[in-house]
């Protein structure tokens, strides 16, 4: 059982709900309460006190004292003991907790069963022990908690049993005490808690049995009875006058006309047979008028049951009869009502008149239908309209079709109204006798006879007002009823005398006699949790386990018990478990009763299931269904995916080979040059080289850099070594420092022996250093220009322009065709002419000479050379692609200058143009070297280095590539390969257990651990290049020394993602074999397998029987029937594959409803096939849409692998014909689906099914499962051969996808489209919310007036509310029964609103927006990438 506190939250303890103690006045204890309190402090006690005498106050006093002692002991939460107050039923939890909270001033946790918010018990109880000392809970919850080992008896210091007289036979009170308190093996005497029991009547037995019952109660509770004498209570508790009201026997009534019609119409319907019996009983008790209204109530109740087994034909007949029925007002005569009912009306008439507005009463009845009928009658009687405000009060029934089924909330509402005098009369079943905090009444009427002494005393205790009356209705001359009442009254008197004169026995003196009723062999302990399995807990645990197994709406698995006689006085029980269980048959020991035989067999089954791991150490089933979450790699206790942490990042070890300036050196050259590009033919680009101490570890390395908005390839090639003397080394060092200074506008320095490399230009067309350029580049000084320079020399200049000392300029062109006296064309030189004219110099266009004189204050010679120059842009990140809209803006403006206005810089343009990308290239080189180091360290040598570099690069690095596409591919491969391993190694585990095992392998938390252990964070590239922050290794920049301890921030998800991305890179490098080997190196658990081929070997060598390797001989497997063989032949022809073991296909077609012990259902093969199909689809779309971002691939993958499309594929393949099942509803659903598709096809203009024709069709999940199980069967049968399953996919599934799905025309589910749209607006706080509400129809309103609760259990179908919220603000909402349909409806409505008001998201969103950030949906990005010039945008994300 999963528990949550059913109370309001408090800020003190985030994990546990503990309401604050309300500031109510503390009650002053009476003398007898103090006496009981003092005795209970020193010994275990059972306090016998009348109803209303204040038993709970004594318990609160004890709790308060126990809390004081615990606090004085100053125990830690792990040592703290709790006060546990145990009640018999749910309504008492809240009531008694309120009293304890008010009187002890303590934080109180209330536990009353599972609710919608589920939380594991061990976590809950840890939170409780940290936040409070008191828990009020039902007995069943405490028993479950103790049995499952979530809490222990030695952690309890006070155990209070409310209404402790229930501690008999198989009540949870008894199990709690016998299994845990009296268990000497688990609990020493010093560890036992104090026990305090409370009751008004400790036993219902009379005569000689009474003393024995009292002794049994004392033994079970290890306590002694303390009886409060009546004279002690007289001063405080009012006693009612007891009256017997006699009525005449009823006349003989014939069945009513309505009863006869209902009997003829549907007398054989099971649901109405019960009503027929009820009517027969009530006819003599209530009369015809009430009986007809019971029919009305029963039919209305059937309407609230959404999945009634009553056939629609009979149900329609019933409704038709009731619709034609008209009810007359009640008339008080023998024809309509029995004398008993008329007597009740007479009593109410007289007492209401006598008491006037002080009237306050309860009518106790035995049956729910009686209570409902009497309530209607009293509400309908005209004479009571203004006098009686009456409602019915009943408990909660386990039956789904019960007439009255009140929830705790509904009970509380009625009791509150009664307390507030909105009601003055209740018609109640026995639920109001015991425990409930109902205000004292002055009239209590027992409409039906009392049956036990306890019931008599408790119902009488409700009449506690002064001068109250307790009226017992009795049939005149009914000697049986007279004798029963006398016996009960005598029993009460005997009990008083017994406890008044009974000698006190010290509690615990008979403890040795109260040994566990279970022998040691009938108890199973789990040492790690102290959980306990007993005969009493075995049967419900076994049912719980079977319910947890894989199933669907067409299959409901339960254990089958077959009890048979053994000999003349014994019984044996055989249990058969569902096929999905790892074991199937168990037989009990020989026992004396049938019930004990069932328990014995269930005990053996549960013990075996625990040893097999199907039941965990808390003796709870391993929970199976968690597949609804999209990210199955997440678990509740893992680190948060977006949690960032600072990690160290390595610098390449290669740079530790420092250079030296002291002596001649041999250095190794690596050339850096642009690849040939016709677009840049007008300008020269010098080849540069990087000189290092050791040769760089590659022959050639290429990268894309982005210049003027265009991608250009830079190639780095290792070359021969070169010799340098000391002077040359000094020149190279200075050139490098000045070059970096020129580009970054910072001062660079580096210790000579730590210098990692030199950068130098090469002479054109040769691997030789251009020493002229090196000499020029020793400083940033400028020099005058020589007007005798050749045109090529001019074009290779970097110049500074007069009156502009802010930067350098490249010479873009020489304008030879213009002279100084020529007029400047306003078309060609528009900007210059406009700026000149704006000065008001002349209205006519200037000459070049005029313009230069105005601009530069120079008188230029007529033939002086005119240059067109372009500003040298400051260094930028050339590794980052420019956004599309900025690419055309990347060319700088051109400026006209005369040659005399220019001064020559100390670097040539051909050198500077290439040098501009050198820092970016060096930054990339660092990343590349780190990836090589990671490759060697982990052993990933089979992975292409460029793919591994991509796998270790995050999107935050702003490169043209990042790991996200690879991560998508690798994630799918990880799921695929891990599924194969689990399928092989766990042949007896069901799909749910396999799924949970896979989560533990592929979860982000598991992958995070692998990445951290391998220290991959040291090699990940996560930060972009930036000129302001670029620090070459070992260099001192602006006086700041190099920091060898580099750090970067990585999220937990990033760490996990790089593992998956590396697997994706490995698969692209060498297929499944290389990817499998990489998975092992990355610590994914494949210890049992060395190579991919080992999958088949281990599968066939497994000692646990598979379908093709039974422990028995193959001859024991029955041959295929002729029909099975026909199916196999047909499917093999369609699949284009011949099964070596045809029974694998038969298993793939076997639904759980038809599975037998000698066969298995398809769920394991479906689990395997799901992973096979997922990877095949991801792999296919990865290659098909090479430019698509991962989000777009995910969208189309989801559209290609879902229940709808797989169901359509199954119908196309005809797999429904081969399905082996035992469910008529399933067959009907499949036929309905096929018929729907046929109608859709016929209505198509082309008589074909086009596009995603399945999207609006509800497909039975079973159909989609068959496709996956078929793929799983083929994959197992071919020995897990990857090529074979790829061939099946390419022939059968890929064409189907090509024909119906594409990114250009994909039909996106409205919920996905909505989330994408909102995220494209930059908002990350949008979500769907789901709630339940009670929307009542007209018939339900009538039922509610009677206090009728709604139906519960599997037939219940509560109304759902779905909302779409942005930052907690409502955008759209809808209500209905199907949450899936509601999400779609809400998404469509929200999208309409957001598209109609484009600013709506911005108005409600406060997510931080990056400056100039651009957001787009995944498909927008894909489309943008396909049709943009240059590099696809998908690579820029």
Report the average pLDDT across residues: 83
* Structural class assignment: alpha/beta
Q: Tell how many strands the DSSP assignment holds.
A: 36
First-to-last CA distance: 47 Å
Catalogue the unreliable spans. Answer: 1-22, 114-118, 306-311, 506-520, 625-638, 1109-1115, 1335-1356, 1410-1415, 1425-1437
Shape descriptor: elongated
Overall helicity: 40-55%
Fraction in beta strands: 5-15%
Strand order of the largest sheet: 3-4-2-5-6-1-7
**Largest sheet at a glance?**
7 strands, parallel
Number of helices: 46
CA gyration radius, whole angstroms: 43 Å
What can you tell me about this protein's structure?
The protein is α/β, with parallel strands linked by helices and 1437 residues long. 41% of the residues lie in helices and 14% in strands. It is built from 46 helices and 36 strands. The protein has a seven-stranded parallel beta sheet with strand order 3-4-2-5-6-1-7, with helices on both faces. A six-stranded parallel beta sheet has the order 8-13-12-9-11-10, with helices on both faces. The longest helix has 30 residues, at 1052-1081. The radius of gyration is 43 Å and the shape is elongated. It starts with 30 loop residues before the first helix and ends in a 10-residue tail after the last helix. The N terminus and C terminus are likely disordered.
